[in-house]
Amino acid sequence: MLSRITSYIAKQIGSVTFVATISMCLLVTLVQSIKFIDMIITNGLPIEEFFRMSLLATPRYLSYLLPIVLFGATLFTYNRMTSDSEIVVMRAAGLSRGKLARGGFVAGFLGMLICYSLTLYLMPASQVEFRSIITHARSQIGSAVLREGQFTNITGDTTIYIREKQSENTLLGIIYHNGADNLTIIAERGNIVETIEGPRVVVFNGNKQVKKDGELHLLEFQKSTLDIGLTKDQKLLRWREANERYLPDLLFPNPNDPNDVQNFDKLIAQGHARILLPIFCLCLPLIAIASLLSGQHSRRGQFKQVSTAIVGMLINLILHIWLTNAAGKNPTLLYVMYANVVIPMLASFYMIHGRRKLKAPRTRAVGSEA
Question: Are 323 and 337 in contact (CB under 8 A)?
């Protein structure tokens, strides 16, 4: 069982992390909402899709935010406890740096488990659904192109009018005109269907009017198909990006897929980055703890220790990003990616546990003279 001190520190870090994470998620969602709203207006999607897309986009940026937020929460908590002399009292009570660091370690470990659930499952699962919504919105005729009660110019020569949309794929009162072929089609109703060639409209109970050689030819039909010039669904041809893949698909790309072969090293590098990213939830807080606990307490504040921790965190993350991109071209750098995480953690453990305890300052005897 956790000691009271460890539990107290872990809860302090957890509460700060929770509030900061919610705030950062709301901020990122607000920034992304501009793009989502524009997509909804352009493609005529229902407002519910905005909340759905915002929710699906959360695991991706949350997996990158969580290590940084945990670092900030740990740094803030230990710095506040130092400023309030809580750390000094605990040290005076005989607690070592190792015992004081346990609370941050527990919070970081729990954050690492949460981040693994994001990177290994929730992020790829949500990205697959997110891309599916975008692809469907861009290829769906009923929501993206056709407008009820309006003449819609699809291509330069093609115009279509829909009196009423009874449902997502059922249309009433259709007028179709192709200027290049001098063809006009009027139909009572139609259904949107997906074919191998792309989206089509199957119309029923209407007539075709073709002007040829100065004469108008009229042909009635019970069923016909309209090709309104849209290409086939890109979803069938779209290559899955790294964010949409689960870990095995990243570490073992398909050797029969030309796109996978072309991006072979990049996919593997992204797979190892997916493994390492959650470990930063533990590595970065340890950097903060080691920086604050290994220095002398000063009433003037812990500016030097805080600055050292922030610089260490930035160097660590920047190296991780650079190495991930570089390893996509040079696979030997994968070992350096792991060293970039392991070495700071070992150094932090040494600063917390390995160094000798700081000697307590001498106290002058009462009545002694300088």
Answer: yes
Q: Where are the beta strands (DSSP E) in 195-337?
A: 199-212, 215-226
pLDDT tens readout for residues 189-209: 888 776 666 667 888 988 988
Domain ranges of the chain: 4-139+238-354, 147-229
Q: Which residue from 101, 55, 11, 87 is spatially nearest to 302, judged by alpha carbons?
A: 87
Distance, in Å, from the CA atom of 13 to the CA atom of 77, rounded to the nearest integer, reads: 6
Residue 134: count of CB within 10 angstroms of its CB: 16
Name residues whose C-beta falls within 8 Å of residue 275's C-beta, 6 or more positions apart in sequence.
Answer: 247
> Could you report the per-residue pLDDT of 213-224, keeping only the tens digit for each?
778 888 888 888
Taking the model in full, what pTM does it have? 0.70
